[in-house]
Amino acid sequence: MGPIRMVVPQAKATGAEAASGPSEARVRFLDASGKPVGRPRKVPVPAAQMMEAPASNGAILRAEAEPQIAFMTRLPTGASQFQVEQHGRSTIRAGIRETASPHPKKPDSRKRLGGADPRFVLAVLAERYDNEAAFHADCNRILAAIGAMPPFTEFPGRIAIEALFWKTSPSQGQLGPLQFGQGTDLIFGDRPLAAAFLKKAGIHSDRSIVLVNLRKRGGAGGTADFPAWVTNEPSATDQWESVAIHELGHAFGLGDEYDSANPQAPPGIEPNISANPSPDAAPWKHLCTSHGPGPTAHFNSGAQLPANTVGTFQGARYETQKFYRAQFSCMMRSTATPFFCVRCQELIRARLA
Ligand SMILES: [Zn+2]
Prior knowledge:
Blueprint: E1 4-7, E2 23-30, E3 36-45, E4 49-54, E5 60-65, E6 70-73, E7 81-85, E8 92-95, H1 96-99, E9 109-114, E10 120-127, H2 132-147, E11 159-165, E12 179-180, E13 187-188, H3 191-200, E14 208-212, E15 219-220, E16 228-231, H4 241-251, E17 313-316, E18 319-325, H5 342-352
Parallel strand pairs: 10-11, 10-14, 14-16
Antiparallel strand pairs: 1-6, 2-3, 2-7, 4-5, 7-8, 9-11, 12-13, 15-16, 17-18
Helix pairs in contact: 2-4
The site of zinc ion has 8 residues, from helix 5.
């Protein structure tokens, strides 16, 4: 048997300070009776990643995701489970068969849903669905939520979903063990494995979502290299589809308008963000109803202004002071806001026209 890839399930913190930088974990293989087989080995623990996470009341923030340990190994003869010890975390013991990563394979089925002449196709990967019709119904819910929201309302049929279905167990799926955030609704699985499945389906990951059939609300932001994650469970304040629509906003080039700190923020500035407090200097100055040196509203204020006020609202792109957004509320700031601000609408419109 050749080398296999293992992904270690999330371990509980024990209270001892876990290393925040790269470190090492000790792996032991065991036989079915729990007796060690082969030699123990050390595997690297990567540094923690900042990830975009939904949270309560529609908030979106940056949360530190616990490092996910993945390693390639050859199995010693007789090994059926493995044990992982890492500083500051409880010891994990898991079955090898349940934990080994599957080889990426083509979807069992793929179906184009939505517009016949789309300008934009969002790939959605099924995870933990054993029923294709239920997966397609959830994809259609995402399409319906998008289609009900301006400016998508003006362009019926321009958005489509490429629904990629793999039949998997609802309790386990195939895209690795799920990791959960602390104090946020961060949920994600094996990101490199999800990207490998997408590649096998011939799709770029920057326009894709892993839709997890799970009775717990949550998700995680995507990047240029990895798809986003969304579960099909609503929260008290927002529909689960909203998390998918926020991610769609990123696929349209929109930046985050929330102010939760992100030490790993990418450089640059998106067209719905301004670094200048004056509305007259904003990239959306032609939309502004507020003028002058600005800002229209300082950080944590502006709620009392008429909701249609357009100007410079302090607090955006992971900063409370440095950056400005066009309106008080926007889907790129909170998923409890069921609309995009006029600047984001304008930018989406330009891509759909
Ligand atoms: Zn916006």
